[in-house]
Design brief:
Strand order of the largest sheet: 3-4-2-1-5-7-8-6
Largest sheet: 8 strands, mixed
Shape: globular
Structural class: alpha/beta
Radius of gyration: 22 Å
Helix content: 25-40%
Order of helices and strands: EHHEHHEHHEHEEHHEHEHEHEEEHHE
CATH superfamily of the largest domain: Acetylglutamate kinase-like
CATH topology of the largest domain: Carbamate kinase
Distance between the termini: 33 Å
CATH class of the largest domain: Alpha Beta
Strand content: 15-25%
Number of helices: 14
Length: 368
């Protein structure tokens, strides 16, 4: 496969094949393709809608009010059934799935952002397949993503995905709505820094009435993800082998080229957090290890100053007092003062808990 880390976003209309209930044959076909990508060595994250539609089906399609508590009720009923289906179908291919429920506040707060990132990294490292959805049962308007298209783009940035694949009920992005305009043409590639205005005008809302998204939300999500260094593809969910073809880098649907590298995006994120007065001083051995690409371990930290919390950005100085790096810390200033100069295996003994062996993981470290 061309891409190492892939996010597959499945919308409600894709899971139901345009009907009012889950389409098991369609779902089996999609999971077969994901299993093929997985078997080739790529890491896969599934962002799945469908909990509310599944809950409605489970309750035999009652005529209910459309206000938020009812939708949250349906999500609470549908999410376990949806995960049970994923568990059963992926188990055929010896793939273990893990449920991850998120709200916007989980990714807007630095410490919770770091927790979410570390959890997903651990799942992927151990060859588990995360199934992500918005936590509809607790989310209010203030903390909702609003749609899983936006969620998938933010997760792409969170884990530095190489490819974000939207599977939808259309072949891709068109110059106008193909259901109304017979002259509409498929847009095969978008590589300009700004998505052309005519494409924004051409993108419409949800036509199926099943989900909360539509082409306009996918376009917004594509704009967000490509600015984080992720390639984006919008393709038909029921197209023959479209998922595998996109993962191989073959032409399918509409492709949006990234505007930044993932590394540049991460640098910007770390720099954006430089409002803290936190400073770490490291010894000569730790300094040399950092320049070789290693993570910062507590044994190499000789001094801690300033106030900071877990997930904040801090400045790192070498033994000569020269600033050498910026990074996101896994421990607060208070915790780090207690564990500095200790071996990583002693962290839990000193603190009574651990957030990992590293003070700053190399993926969260920007060398100057």
């Amino acid at each position: 496969m061309k891409y190492r880390r892939i996010i597959v976003k499945l919308g409600t209309s894709t899971l139901t094949a345009g009907t009012n209930r889950l389409s098991l044959p369609h779902l089996v076909s999609l999971i077969q393709q994901i299993a093929e990508i997985y078997a080739d060595g790529s890491q896969v994250v599934l962002v799945s809608s469908g909990a509310i539609a599944t809950g409605r089906e489970e309750l035999k399609f009652p005529d209910l009010p459309r206000h938020m508590p009812v939708k949250q009720m349906l999500a609470a009923v549908g999410q376990p059934r949806l995960m049970a289906l994923y568990h059963q179908l992926f188990h055929i291919y010896d793939i273990t799935v893990a449920q991850v429920l998120l709200t916007r506040s989980d990714l807007s707060d630095r410490r919770r952002y770091l927790n979410a990132r570390n959890t997903l990294e651990a799942l992927l490292t151990h060859r588990l397949l995360p199934v992500i959805n918005e936590n509809d049962t607790v989310a209010t308007d203030e903390i909702k993503f609003g749609d899983n298209d936006t969620l998938s783009a933010l997760v792409a940035s969170l884990i530095e995905a190489d490819l974000l694949l939207f599977l939808t009920d259309q072949q891709g992005l068109y110059t106008s709505d193909p259901r109304r305009d017979p002259d509409a043409k498929l847009v095969e590639r978008v590589q300009t820094p700004d998505i052309p205005e005519e494409l924004w005008r051409a993108a419409g809302g949800s036509q199926s009435g099943l989900g909360t998204g539509g082409m306009i939300t996918k376009l917004r999500a594509a704009e967000l993800a490509r600015r984080s260094g992720t390639t984006v593809v919008i393709a038909r969910g029921n197209g023959k082998n479209n998922l595998v073809s996109a993962a191989r880098g073959e032409p399918v649907g509409t492709l949006f080229t990234p505007l930044l590298s993932p590394l540049e995006s991460r640098k910007r994120y770390i720099l954006a957090g430089m409002k803290t007065s936190g400073v770490l001083q490291v010894d000569e051995g730790a300094s040399s290890a950092l320049f070789r690409g290693s993570s910062l371990l507590p044994v190499g930290v000789v001094d801690v100053s300033g106030g900071f919390e877990r997930g904040d950005s801090v400045r790192v100085f070498d033994h000569r007092g020269k600033e050498i790096a910026l990074g996101l810390v896994n421990y607060s200033a208070k915790d780090l003062a207690a564990i500095c100069r200790h071996q990583s295996k002693e962290i839990e003994q000193v603190l009574g808990y651990t957030y990992g062996d590293e003070v700053i993981h190399r993926n969260n470290l920007l060398m100057l």
